[in-house]
Specification:
The complex is a heterodimer of chains A (290) and B (437).
Chain A (H helix, E strand, L loop, with lengths): L1 H50 L4 H4 L5 H12 L4 H36 L11 H13 L2 H12 L3 H25 L4 H8 L4 H40 L2 H11 L4 H34 L1
Chain B lengths: L1 H38 L5 H4 L2 H12 E9 L5 E5 L16 E4 L2 E7 L2 E6 L3 E6 L3 E7 L4 E3 L9 E3 L4 E4 L4 E4 L3 E9 L17 H6 L9 H10 L6 H33 L7 H30 L3 H25 L3 H9 L4 H39 L2 H12 L3 H34 L1
Antiparallel strand pairs in B: 1-2, 1-12, 3-4, 4-5, 5-6, 6-7, 7-8, 9-10, 10-11, 11-12
Classes of the chains: A mainly alpha (290), B alpha+beta (437).
């Protein structure tokens, strides 16, 4: 008893000292990390600024010029806009179709890849790493690379874009679905196996019903992303609204009303599908929680 | 009784409905694909596709060819890898499958295929299983010994004869005779023919005697490799760095910008509903405009380059992060804030000690997720705005001949994205673990 009370004051100050030391070290580390981060950001900005054709400080007050010119011209020819939008509507439909077809095929392929690459569900467990690496590579190749190579072989048009986006979608979906399916309950699968169900039947009847809401929600999110991707691919020559946008932009002033019409169409489409998909996704995940 | 019958009826109706959807959904998808088949003109694809291009692409990606060119005017013979100026064999040097035999230059293409370049603009080509083809440019037209009906691997007209075999290709036009000999692998990847280190192995360079009297082996070899004029390794590494830089600046810049804005859009921290509503619409607008349009608008102001790409990512991500952050901020635990404010903390201190520690791990892990996907976006945006590896690869694809470079860039891009994926995973794990300590 006596020794404890005697030792207490030194211990408290010991603990306090240790605590302060730890706090200080933590602050030092935090400060250093922050400093490195700031240095990286600033030097990165300087490098990017130096390598750019026009500098940041020269361009920053010109950001509004192009939108202003487009808007002014669009305002001048306000009554032409509905007609122009009607003119470019088929191109917009093509962009949406590219996104839809590539999402459908990509999700189906990604589903199969995910099932083949998930522990406990795979048809050939030894090949799981192989399918995972395939998924990784499919996800890593940017769409634009595949699209440009296919344009060389197949000629311009929507098909190269569809294949390119579908490959990337399959890779991305394959990883996401596999993460979801890993948490699926294996009991229904075992039950189905005990009555002699084939692998396809086990997956379709044992796993799919458990994970369907989650999968559908991801697929919808992917559709939203793919609409943007398909517009960008159009810009490099794969058809659709992006292609029309590049054409109308290359005409320059005097035809800005066409660019404005396409901007409005693209913007409206993205916002529309964004809203629709987020509403349905909320519905799907809510149903799951109940 | 009637209850049972009713329940049975309901169950039967439910089953019917489920069965109907089970068949209707695939049917609708099939009908849609049918519509797409006609809308995208899949049937016409076969006529538009160029299988020859596919063949060139596939074989060029992992093989190279050496051009042997004889000018009909001067009679000079030149050897060049891929027919490029930078790959030309220096004066007096030539590949080891070329031999001199009196007046003739003999090219051994392997497997019995042999080409003899003879004086008088005459070329002889031994094709196993066919015999010897003799072709000559007589000053006005190309004459061959093939007669009126040449085999289908020969394309002959008055001004141009092209012979395509497994051993190699021979093309004779009015101005020159060209022989293409194909080899597997990427040629001159390490050193071009002008470099003294060409043909020396790694061991010889590291431990062998000094090759170039003026430079040490290691420094000289590194310099020649780094500034290899055909593969331009220095430029490629720069380009990859530029792409990662775009992703880094865009992602973290967007996150820094979005954080204060997210506070204004979260119900708990912005009591004024109008402000909240306005902020949310701003986020929706910025996201809706999309990176493509931002890139176009920004490249008008800043010109092409990595900064434009970084800013395009930054602006788009500000919208996305603003939305994600404000949702995370609405879900913070009130108790910690109350605790901090009970000590008399001012609003700013309440945010710093009550809110930030709660949300930072969640937000940072989201940001790191985006860093990886933005690396891929930066490649695509770079192709539009002219910066980074995206620009290099689109240029290489558009010239439609340097497919081995395209293959090289694709491998690098895949490695880059996988590396960023790994990096962001490591940082995220550290973050989550470091916080639980």
């Amino acid at each position: 008893m006596a020794e404890i009370t005697a030792g207490a004051p030194t211990r408290v100050s010991d603990v306090q000292g240790h605590y302060m030391e730890m706090i200080q070290r933590k602050r030092l580390y935090g400060g250093l990390t922050l400093l490195i981060f700031i240095v990286l950001m600033v030097s990165g900005f300087m490098v990017a600024d130096g390598r750019n054709a026009g500098g940041f400080w020269d361009g920053v007050d010109k950001i509004g010029d192009y939108p202003a010119a487009v808007l002014a011209e669009a305002w001048e020819k306000f009554f032409d806009l509905p007609g122009l939008m009607l003119k470019y509507f088929p191109a917009l439909i093509e962009t949406i179709n590219i996104a839809a077809v590539s999402t459908l095929t990509g999700v189906l392929a990604g589903f199969v890849l995910a099932m083949l690459g998930t522990r406990g569900l795979a048809k050939w467990p030894r090949l799981i790493p192989v399918f995972r690496r395939i998924t990784d590579v499919m996800r890593a190749v940017p769409e634009i690379v595949i699209a440009l190579m296919l344009i060389f072989v197949l000629g311009g048009g929507p098909v190269p874009a569809v294949i390119a986006i579908a490959i990337h979608t399959a890779g991305a979906i394959g990883k996401l679905f596999s993460e979801v399916a890993e948490n699926a309950d294996l009991k229904p699968v075992e039950g189905l196996q005990s009555v002699g169900a084939t692998w396809t039947q086990r997956i379709l009847l044992g796993v799919l019903p458990q994970v369907a809401p989650n999968f559908l929600s991801y697929a919808l999110l992917r559709f939203e992303i793919n609409i943007r991707a398909s517009a960008i691919l159009g810009f490099v020559g794969a058809g659709g609204i992006g292609y029309e946008l590049r054409n109308s932009m290359s005409w320059g002033p005097g035809r800005f009303d066409e660019a404005a019409a396409i901007f409005v169409l693209l913007f409206a489409t993205i916002v529309f599908f964004d809203q629709v998909s987020s509403r349905y996704r909320n519905k799907l995940t809510e149903g799951q929680g109940q | 009784m009637s209850d049972v019958a009713m329940l049975q009826g309901q169950a039967a109706a439910l089953f019917r409905r489920k069965r109907l959807t089970a068949f209707a959904v695939p049917a609708v998808i099939l009908v849609y694909f049918g519509y797409i088949f006609f809308a995208f003109d899949i049937a016409g694809l076969a006529s538009r596709a160029q299988p020859a291009n596919a063949l060139t692409l596939a074989s060029d990606m992992f093989s190279h060819k050496v051009h042997v060119t004889r000018s009909h005017r001067s009679g000079d013979i030149e050897y060049a890898v891929e027919g490029e100026r930078k790959g030309r064999y220096p004066e007096g040097m030539r590949p080891d499958w070329v031999a001199e035999d009196g007046d003739a230059t003999v090219l051994d293409l392997g497997e019995g295929y042999e080409v003899r370049i003879l004086p008088g603009n005459t070329t002889e080509f031994d094709v196993p299983g066919h015999g010897t083809i003799v072709a000559q440019f007589d000053g006005s037209k190309v004459v061959t010994n093939l007669g009126d009906t040449p085999p289908d691997w020969v394309n002959a007209s008055r001004t141009r004869v092209s012979i395509t075999t497994d051993g190699g290709r021979v093309t004779i036009t009015r101005s020159k005779t060209e022989i293409f000999n194909y080899f597997p692998g990427w040629e001159l990847f390490w050193f071009t023919l002008e470099s003294p280190y060409h043909g020396h192995g790694l061991f010889a360079i590291l431990f062998g005697e000094q090759i170039d009297p003026e430079r040490s082996n290691l420094a000289g070899a590194w310099n020649d490799f780094w500034h290899n004029p055909m593969w331009r390794h220095a430029d490629v590494v720069w380009a990859i760095g530029e792409t990662i830089l775009m992703a880094f600046l865009g992602t973290f810049g967007g996150a820094i910008l979005a954080l204060p804005l997210a506070f204004m859009a979260a119900k708990r921290f912005a009591p004024i509903m109008a402000l909240r509503f306005a902020m949310r619409r701003v986020f929706d607008f910025v996201r809706g405009v999309d990176a493509l349009i931002w890139t176009i608008v920004l490249s008008r102001a800043f010109g092409p380059g990595p900064l434009t790409g970084a800013l395009a990512i930054l602006i788009t991500d500000t919208g996305t992060f603003g939305k994600i952050f404000s949702e995370a901020l609405e879900n913070v635990d009130e108790k910690q804030i109350e605790g901090v404010s009970s000590t008399g903390a001012k609003p700013l201190q309440r945010y710093r000690f009550g809110v930030i520690p709660q949300v930072v791990p969640v937000l940072l892990s989201q940001v790191l997720y985006f860093l990886e996907s933005n690396t891929r976006s930066a490649t695509i945006i770079g192709a539009i705005t002219g910066g980074g590896i995206g620009l290099l690869i689109t240029q290489a694809i558009q010239t439609q001949k340097d497919w081995e470079e395209v293959a090289y860039y694709i491998v690098l891009i895949i490695l880059m994205v996988i590396f960023m994926d790994w990096l962001s995973g490591v940082l995220r794990r550290r973050l989550i673990r470091g916080d639980s300590e």
